[in-house]
From TrEMBL:
Protein's GO biological process: secondary metabolic process
Superkingdom assignment: Bacteria
Keyword Transcription regulation belongs to the record: no
Positions of the Amidohydrolase-related domain: 3-330
Protein name (record): 4-oxalomesaconate hydratase
Keywords recorded for this protein, A-Z: Lyase
Entry-linked Pfam families: Amidohydro_2
MF-aspect GO terms: carboxy-lyase activity; hydrolase activity
CC annotations in GO: cytoplasm
Length: 341
């Protein structure tokens, strides 16, 4: 089985974006604020948006199941206040849940949280609870920078985040550490901000003792971990200077990396540096890099090809494609076992 742990609903029906634009306009002009009931998206609309896009590519590429969450760049936690984020998150999470009900063997949901800069993260807990208990979500996406590129929140090691971690531990769910749109002109959203955040999240964990307080907490750092594998020696040396344990003991029971790396040398580096038990298959298609690589003739985001071509043994490949996902996402594993898979 091949499990893609990193999928976003980037192809949602146009009505969702239209409603969101009206919501944003309503922040400055309340008369334009749409009601939730005005968003009308049928099951047929959802089915068409998935069958012609993600599901078609999953079939073509031989992927079996995707952990599916709202479009990352659309989370935009920096827009409006908590009430704006709360309404928006609820709508987006419901759509992913509905997709998972329409295609239960192909998609399983993960939740965005209604984060808002400077707001107590406890306000996110009702949405988290609803998504786990009612929608069967197996993970959350946690934005370490809801300001959108200005980094006004405390580091992930700060007790500010602990109420979220406590619920994660209670439900035994991991968080993908995933930022959203950058509103800082210095940082391109998918080319810079995402990769900066991946690296920053790792270093915030490295320089702290977070996992002493939460030994079973699990973070998935996307996009191959940003700069982490390439600079593994730097981070090992930094940990040594800070009198931290070896990284394998300090972080690798809790921190994992996906394979959203869009060329063979990058995947070869990832699999050569990071222990195989910490690598989970992902493509993030249909996402930031949708084109065809002129050097290979294949889509950049067809990451299954890279794993198949990597110089790793069949056991390692099986861990990356399936085994590690089932271990890091226990609720996913439980769903699969209940289906006899």
């Amino acid at each position: 089985m091949i499990i893609d742990i990193h999928g976003h609903y980037t192809t949602a029906p146009k009505a969702l974006e239209v409603w969101r634009n009206r919501q944003i306009a309503g922040i400055s002009n309340p008369a334009e604020m749409p009601r939730v009931s005005e968003l009308q998206i049928s099951d047929e609309d959802l089915r068409e948006s998935i069958e012609n896009n993600q599901l078609r590519l999953m079939r073509e590429r031989g992927l079996d199941l995707t952990i599916f969450s709202p479009r990352a760049s659309f989370m935009a936690h920096h827009i409006g206040d908590f009430e704006i984020s709360s309404t928006w998150a609820a709508l987006c999470n419901e759509l992913c849940y509905r997709v998972s009900q329409l295609f239960p063997d192909r998609f399983i949901p993960a939740a965005m949280l209604p984060q808002s800069p400077g707001v107590d993260v406890r306000t996110c807990i009702p949405e988290l609870v609803k998504c786990v208990e009612q929608y069967g979500n197996v993970a959350i996406n946690l934005n370490p920078d809801p300001s959108g590129g200005h980094w006004t929140s405390p580091p992930l090691s700060d007790k500010y985040w602990y109420p979220i971690y406590e619920k994660m531990v209670e439900y035994d769910i991991p968080a993908m550490i995933h930022v959203s749109t950058s509103c800082n002109a210095c940082f391109h959203t998918t080319g810079t901000h995402y990769l900066n955040a991946d690296t920053t999240a790792f270093v915030q964990c490295l320089t702290s003792n977070l996992f002493d307080d939460f030994p079973t907490l699990r973070f998935v750092i996307p996009h191959g971990g940003g700069a982490v594998p390439y600079h593994w020696g730097r981070f090992r040396g930094l940990a040594q200077e800070l009198k931290k344990p070896l990284l394998k003991d300090h972080l690798l029971n809790n921190v994992f990396f996906d394979t959203c790396v869009y060329h063979q040398p990058g995947i070869d580096l990832l699999t050569g540096v990071i222990p195989v038990d910490n690598i989970l298959f992902a493509s993030e298609m249909i996402g930031a890099v949708r084109g065809i690589d002129p050097e290979t003739g294949h889509n950049f985001d067809d990451t299954k090809r890279y794993i198949e071509a990597a110089a790793i043994d069949p056991e390692a490949r099986q861990k990356i494609f399936e085994g590690n996902a089932r271990r890091v996402y226990p609720r996913l594993n439980a769903v699969l076992k209940a289906k006899g898979v």
